[in-house]
Amino acid sequence: MNIADDNLIRLHDISKHYEMGSTLVRALDDISVEIQRGDWVSFIGSSGSGKSTFLNILGCLDRPTQGEYFLNGVYVEELGPNRLAEIRNREIGFIFQSFNLLPRATALGNVMQPLVYRRIGYRQRREMARQALDRVGLGDRVDHLPNQLSGGQRQRVAIARALVTEPSILLADEPTGNLDSQTSADIMQLFDQLHREGQTLILVTHEEDVAGLGDRVIELLDGKIIRDRRAGEPLH
Amino acid sequence: MFYVILESTRSALISILAHGLRSFLTTLGIVIGVASVIAVISLTQGMSAFIGESFSSLGSNSLTIQSYTPISEAMRGVRARLTPEDLELIERRAGGVASITPILYASRSSQVRYAAQTTFSQIMGTTYAYRDVAQAWVQSGRFIAESDNLTRRRVTVIGEKVRDDLGLPENPVNEYVELGGEWFKIIGLLEAKGDVMGFDQDDIVLVPYSTMRSLAGNQSQIDIQIQLSLSEQAEVDDVTRQLTALLRNAHDLEPDEDDDFRINTAEQLMETFDTIISMVTLVIGGIVSISLLVGGIGIMNIMLVSVTERTREIGICKAIGAKRLHILAQFLIEAMLLSLLGGLIGLALGYGLGTAISSSIDSFPPASIPLWAIALALGFSGFVGVLFGILPAAKAANLDPIDALRYE
Q: Nearest-CA distance from B320 to chain A in Å?
């Protein structure tokens, strides 16, 4: 644990294998990546390329079969489930393709929820959640339930929920997958704005357009990194 | 920890209110269970309080001595007796006695007739002292006097119920009734006392003790009861000990032989009733609390459904930082709140039910709930909630976040 470098994320020879019947599925195969603070990195790959598994490991929801993962200087593999929950709460802001809002809570309630696990009092929680919603441009929709909001608005609530804990990284899984192109563009613009404010962003997508907006694009195929390039570089 | 409980309670309440009807139906089992427990307890407790009052009106400083034959003796044809000699002995030798009276129950027919009306009643031969010992006062006419006994007069004092049954006038004094084939003149009517546990205290016919003895013919072997009241400063235990010694001596009992009589105090009688009532309460309460368990299973069932339904939500919460404890507490507290809410509704309902029953049945004492019953009902329903909430809550807490997030 002698990690004192600038890398926010350091993955070393990460593999994830599943037993499926009698065959061994190598969802991830010896992946090594380093991501620096403030980067906007997009992982791109078709379905089955292992990008969801990769995201789960990055988000501390899953553990690799082998390999080392340091997040913000912490060797994650050694941690128990409760510490992992704390890491998810403090270091990571999840943004999902299907938004994953709590259906019975208002926009404000959804954004307040992660703060509950940080033992923050109700008034302060509400204040922080309001600010986060303001930041994503939803200050006037705080009391709406998810089903009263449009897709783009729901994703903004989800982003506010991810931001409210001031995480080290925002982890977005196909954030525009369920949105129309105009709304997608708005959301990506929001990401761009957050990136310029210094937020580390990790996007997983299969759309080249979306991936191309970041600093760096990493292509996955069959659980391996096949290409790691600056955004804007030609594909071939 | 307090913070977790507070927040879990907040979200549990939101969840319960969000499914108002379902929550209500879920908790219905608990509502019915607690309501029946409380109704039963409130009725029996009301009865017990009532009996306590009734017995204190009998006078707590009175003693009753009865002969007692163990069943094994009775099978051999031996019968213990209390005789008039025993009475005399006590009158002469025992201290601390304010008044004392023999009671001789009619040995044959207890039929009472007036004109064409016949009824059966408790016919007792006694003396003027019965009035003080049993707190029996006449509302019209007079009580049995000493001279009635000396001259074996055929006079009687009757209870309100007997008067009513026989269709006697409001003031039956100077009317004649037939007791066991002999005519008696009514000299007094007792004040109404009401009934205790189905025993009507107004269903009695009193005649002079010596008249009763003469009616019994020359049966030399009569068995009487002796009732006595204690003087102010006398201790029940002292007098009881003294009487026991006197009677054992008079009956020639060896030290290794058991008493062939029983000395009962009104208090003992009350305790006996109390024991019976607590037994009944316990048994019925036990049976009814099975319905609480059934209610608990209902809650567990719905909580399991709810966990499945909210699998994705649980996954989300875990992804944004919920620990096992948070999820566990949320579902456990939800189950407990549901159950407690049911307990509270059941408490109100049960009290209402008890009151309704006791007020709709005449002569039934008013219902009363002791505090311990409230605490017990709420404590038990909370316990049921925790007991049957653990399984669903543990299921929720142990969900794998990835699987839960993927759940459709």
A: 5
